[in-house]
Amino acid sequence: MAVASQTHKPVTANMVSNEWIEKQMFVWFLLCDNKAQPQQRNKSKGKTSEQRVQQQSQAGVKAKHTCGQCGKAFSFKSALTRHQRIHSGEKLFICVECGKAFSQKVNLKRHQLFHNGEKPHTCDECGKTFIRAKHTCDQCGKDFSKKSNLTVHQRIHSGEKLFICDECGKAFAQKQHLKTHQLVHSGEKPHMCDECGKTFSQSGHLREHLLIHRGIKPFSCDQCGKAYAQKSTLTIHQRIHSGEKLFICDECGKAFAQKVNLKTHQLVHSGEKPHTCDECGKSFSRSGTLSLHLLIHRGIKPHRCEQCGKTFTQRSDLTSHMKTHSRTELYHCDHCGKIYKQKHNLIHHLRSHTGHEVCPCDQCDKVFTTYKDLKSHQTSHSSERPHKCDTCGKSYKWKSNLNHHQRVHEKNVF
């Protein structure tokens, strides 16, 4: 059997060299690709989470993980999990030294530096070491552990207010202050007192309120020694001593020490009576007046006269009644000379002469038919002397006294 002879192509030097070159090029390509990948990974590590999300969004990659509480989106589930601890208040990382808990591991590590005494941040100028890197405000010298806190603080000096309320246009330097303000519009009061159930829009107001239940009154008046749980209440009280009345009615010019008293007073001009009795339908401008009125329906008369045993629903009625026993205080009508035992009866009587509401002085028992006369009279209660002589500098409460005094200088001229 004849064996077919196989013909082999001769192997040339060119063929060997070409195969070797192709293999070398393939190896070189793999090496280059492996070097490029770690560089790319290192670059991505240097970027913040926000930059990575932005880069992915530009590349068409959407953030898949969304917070169900606030709608914020994250590209990684781990970032979402960390974020959700803000809403839940969960703090998984606990310091073994003191038991303080943190929501993030990095915050625990920073805290532990206090216990081990490690101070990794060194000043290049003097060599002094610190637990945290300091960020100092160049305006006032105040130090901050975080640069973001310094940035927020510097808005106080610049007056910059980036966060604007959509409802009323009021602007704030910090986002948190805007959020707190927006509770005014929504009416939301998420902070509740466990003692009495009263609710507050701010946690700070709740903390102040709790002092009342605990009987703690750290703010004392230096004039009379009266103590208060809240500094704002002390400030209002101190106006009694100073006589300061900052809140003035646009309608009649009457001044008040407290804003709430001005608002209540303004209901007199508007005629608004928002508080209605469910029993008889009678309406009142003040809630306190309604509360007193309800005692009539319930037959409650807690105020008793010690001299005759007569009882009254309101303390003011008892006070008026007590004057009938002493008969030392009488009210005279300047128009007809009629005498009354009680002031409110004189006020009611004066309407028959004037045909309109009268103006009683809140500092004494006098009653006036016009507001102008009342204002002139109230000068007698104050130490103010607004009418000053240009010649000698002497001052008077009333202009008529000044005019009389100036005649002395006129006589000297002639």
From TrEMBL:
One of its GO terms (cellular component) is nucleus. It comes from the Eukaryota. Residues 39-60 are annotated as: Disordered. GO terms for molecular function: zinc ion binding. PROSITE patterns: ZINC_FINGER_C2H2_1 (PS00028), ZINC_FINGER_C2H2_2 (PS50157). Its main location: nucleus. It is found in: Nucleus. Keywords: Metal-binding, Nucleus, Repeat, Transcription, Transcription regulation, Zinc, Zinc-finger. Residues 65-92, 93-120, 135-162, 163-190, 191-218, 219-246, 247-274, 275-302, 303-330, 331-358, 359-386, 387-409 form the C2H2-type domain. May be involved in transcriptional regulation. Belongs to the krueppel C2H2-type zinc-finger protein family. This is Zinc finger protein 865. It comes from Gouania willdenowi (Blunt-snouted clingfish).
